[in-house]
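Here we describe the complex-level prediction in full. Unlike the single-chain runs in Section 2.1, the two entities below were treated as one system.
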Amino acid sequence: GESVGLHLPTLSVQEGDNSIINCAYSNSASDYFIWYKQESGKGPQFIIDIRSNMDKRQGQRVTVLLNKTVKHLSLQIAATQPGDSAVYFCAENGGYQKVTFGTGTKLQVIP
Amino acid sequence: DTEVTQTPKHLVMGMTNKKSLKCEQHMGHRAMYWYKQKAKKPPELMFVYSYEKLSINESVPSRFSPECPNSSLLNLHLHALQPEDSALYLCASALSGGPYNEQFFGPGTRLTVL
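The structure predicted for the assembly as a whole is:
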């Protein structure tokens, strides 16, 4: 069936460097994508979203890029901080009310 | 109040027990969700309530029974669970059930079935 997945299960980044987390999706009909951050012992926290009519969206220190041609999504975190250490999930909303999460990438920030 | 609360935080139950998980939000959201998350896996959608009516059931076994008494509360009744049902159960809410609404997640209930 349709799925959302990630290329890298673990990413280690030096504090202060930029992080890039990638995600591939397979449902070409998906029109809304979300990045979530999940810290240990907590529920997922919304970071940023993007609709399919856009290819880039920026937030505070985060940027999401969407390439519909190759069905690829990425999350860029500028000046990565220790507090950014968490598991990051991309998710797609390909239908009414249903959000499907990708497999997740663990981001480790090295002080 | 901009958070989703879940009780209990931890629950240990036997396979013959009956227990309930509770979720509450006071943000005026009209869509509420139950997800199941196994260790090192993404959350998986179980149920969706929209305006207090069950709108999505992702083929969840009947030993899980959701209930939405009002727009602020969501329960998940558990009966005759199996050890493989041990997981983190997450509740979420959104302004409405539309596709572009941010979901707010609670901290989850860590369930262990013995």
